[in-house]
Amino acid sequence: MLSLPAEPPPGIALFDLDGTLIPWDCQLLFRHHVVRREPWRRVFLPIFLGLLPLYPILKTEGMKRVFLSYLWGMPPAKVGEYSESFAASLMAAIYPELREEIERHRRAGHLVVLTSASPEFYVSEIGCLLGFDLVLGTVVTPGELFPDLENHKGAAKVARLRELLPASYFDGTRLRNCHGYTDSTADLPMLELCQHATLVNPKPGLLEIGTRHGWQVVRPARPWRTKADFIRRSLKLLFGVGEDPGGLRR
User: CA 156, CA 113: separation in Å to the nearest integer?
Assistant: First the structure.
């Protein structure tokens, strides 16, 4: 059980992960990390591709369960081993601008929270290496072909924060002196908890919302040069081929 002091910190910082601290969706990166080490797990990809047309029925949560089928039968100890090595491999790819923001909040004594829709088994390892005080992700127990999960996204992030943080950390509907960081409109419910926000490489829709609210915008460099390059790299990550298609080594 999480234990936090009742006395609220001088500030709180909420960081998304995928697209915010790193250029990619970690689910693609972790898949590549695993499949490069266990190539036979590519056999599960046709299941995911075959069920893609059913996305309107299965929704994001259902498709995430299907996507994670490549972890079928993997012992928890091996999942943990891969999670640790994966987290270590990501450190060079963390945006320097965002890493400095994490450190700035830590120096100020703020509660620094990593809150992600990616599976918590590797998000927790990433958060530990980056020095986060609290790490939250989608709780998944690998082993089954389509593992059970409750997608930690959108309003679910807010619900979990309200469940875990002491009531004294809130001032009405918002967290006290809170700054949120994201690249996605999916995190707008999270940003409603915050007095301040920073958008990372926002798309036009999110940028328009951010402009109306006076939110800060940062645009760290990403590894792909063109949309075609992004697609090429994404496919290599999905199929588990190539040494470093994500451009994680700088």
Answer: 15
Q: Three-state SS string across 148-208, please? A: CECCCCCHHHHHHHHHHCCHHHEECCEECCEEEEECCHHHHHHHCCCCEEEEECCCHHHHH
- 164: buried, middle or exposed (CB in 10 Å: 19+, 13-18, 0-12)? middle
> Which one, of 16, 189, 185, lies nearest residue 114 by Cα?
16
The rounded radius of gyration (Å) of the Cα atoms in the chain is: 18
Q: How many CB atoms lie within 10 A of CB 188?
A: 15
Compute, in degrees rounded to 10, the torsion defined by CA atoms 28, 235, 204, 90. Answer: 40
Contacts of 143 (CB under 8 A, 6+ apart): 71, 72, 73, 74, 76
pLDDT in tens, 186-237: 999 999 999 999 999 999 999 999 999 999 999 999 999 999 999 999 999 9
**How far apart are the C-alpha atoms of 247 and 222, rounded to whole Å?**
9
In this prediction the pTM is 0.96
Give how far Cα 215 sits from Cα of 192, 194, 206, 207, Å: 12, 11, 10, 9
Sign of the torsion angle spanned by Cα atoms 232, 93, 41, 140: negative
Q: For strand 174-175 and strand 170-171, is the pairing parallel, antiparallel, or unpaired?
A: antiparallel
Residues 6+ apart with CB under 8 A from 108: 10, 11
The closest alpha carbon to 170, from 4, 10, 8, 1, belongs to 8
pLDDT tens profile 48-107 = 999 999 999 999 999 999 999 999 999 999 999 999 999 999 999 999 999 999 999 999
Domains annotated on the chain, with CATH: 12-239 (3.40.50.1000)
